[in-house]
Amino acid sequence: MRTVGVEEELLLVDPRTGVPVPLSGVVVTEHDPKASAPITTELQQQQVETGTPVRTSMADVAAALRDLRRQVADAAAAAGAHVAALGTSPLPVVPQLTPDARYRRIRDLTGVMCDDHLTGGCHVHVGVASDDEGVAALDRLRPWLPVVTALATNSPFVDGRDSGYAGYRTQVWQRWPGTGPADVFGSPAEYRRRVDAMLATGVVLDHGMVYFDARLSQRYPTVEVRVPDVCLRVDDAVAVAALVRALVDTAADAWAAGEPAPPVPSALVRLASFRASRWGLTDELVHPRTGGTVPAAVAVTALVEHVRPALERSGDLDLVGTAVDELLAHGTGADRQRGVMDATGDLAHVVADAVEQTAR
After folding, report:
1. What's the alpha-carbon Rg for the chain, to the nearest Å?
2. Rounded to an integer, what is the distance from CA 247 to the centroid of its chain?
3. How confident is the model at residue 246, as a pLDDT?
4. At the N or C end, where does the chain have fewer CB atoms within 10 A?
5. Hey, is 59 helix, strand or coil?
6. Is 119 helix (H, G, I), strand (E, B) or coil?
7. How many angstroms separate the first and last alpha carbons of the chain?
8. Contact call for residues 11 and 47 (beta carbons, < 8 A)
9. Which of these, 46, 66, 44, 70, lies nearest to 55 by C-alpha position?
10. Which positions, given as ranges, span the membrane (predicted)?
11. Which residues pair with 58 in a beta bridge?
């Protein structure tokens, strides 16, 4: 069974106001150095990143995510903060750059875009046997990623207002150079050639700034899928991780069987991603096979059916089915945020609810 690791970017917020606070350095210091997984700083001081140990069982992934969220909550409390799994800050904030040489180089390159950037994503790493298998998976899973984006939308509010998007983080993120869907590579050699060409421009400073929607990890023998918002609820994050693993499994099977990669233009994948980011599960999505718009439930069902054999092999079919039914019936993190706002009229309550949901 393929290994899975999940990284989460989490906001640190003021317990009284809900405004993000620049305490990542203190939180990292307060974290137990003997813990099973590290807490690290990120681009801005108002957030931290966690990463689960490598696991094969989704039950173990869930346990690791819950444990890490508890550890961050404890370390944040010691620093005078709370932690919230939010894709963007609902309340206005002035991000403060983490004092790091690489981040300063990024800021010098991107200017105000970096100054304004504060988003929380979820990155899913899935083990692959070789770069050949990894690139084959990247080439075949790309049309399905917008559906994953829709399932994980959790960033409707930004800078004190409703953005109009379910997953506004996707739009913020795609301003950066090197982001978005990649064209079909065909081979590891072509993958490396294209990355080298990007680096040669001087706009992408290093391999870490190759921000494809899905890429080969530079640190691990994995495919890394980067499209989901950080999920409000652990159960949603686990379902997304299970679906991503099943997508890699299904793509690798298709490659081994000699099936070609779907020749879907990247421009169309980007448009499908826009729909997913704009409406989440509340409107139509682009069907990954036909390219036409269909009700969100139809696109999600198509995704589950596409990866059903892989989910059955891993024992994750019931887990994913239950989570998907819940999301279709009651909405994503974005829908919950809007529900709290409708009920209270106060974005501080939205953040407070997110704090509660993050630790639950």
Report:
1. 19
2. 15
3. 98
4. C
5. helix
6. strand
7. 29
8. yes
9. 66
10. none
11. none
Q: What is the pLDDT of residue 38?
A: 80
Closest listed residue to residue 324, CA positions, set 124, 121, 152:
152
Side chain identity, residue 104: R
**Cα–chain center distance at 216:** 15
pLDDT digits (tens, 9 = 90+) for 281-332: 999 999 999 999 999 999 999 999 999 999 999 999 999 999 999 999 999 9
**What domains appear along the chain, each with residue ranges and CATH number?**
4-359 (3.30.590.20)
**What does the alpha-carbon distance between residue 337 and residue 267 come to, in Å, rounded to a whole number?**
30
Distance, in Å, from the CA atom of 336 to the CA atom of 334, rounded to the nearest integer, reads: 5
Going along 128-201, which residue ranges are E strands? Answer: 157-158, 161-162
* Torsion on CA atoms 158, 159, 161, 165, rounded to nearest 10: -20
What tens digit of pLDDT does each residue of 13-28 get?
999 999 999 999 999 9
Q: In 3D, which of 161, 159, 160, 158 has the Cα closest to residue 170?
A: 158
How many helices (DSSP H) and strands (DSSP E) are in the chain? 15, 11
Query: E-strand spans in the chain?
Result: 4-13, 39-41, 47-51, 82-84, 122-127, 157-158, 161-162, 214-216, 222-225, 284-286, 293-295
CA geometry: angle at 27 spanning 25 and 29, to 5°? Answer: 70
Longest dimension (CA), the chain: 57
Report the alpha-carbon distance of residue 358 to residue 317 in Å, rounded.
Answer: 25
CA distances from 127 to 3, 130, 185, 227 (A): 5, 9, 19, 17
Q: Provide the residue type at 205 as one letter.
A: L
At 57-67, the pLDDT tens digits run 999 999 999 99
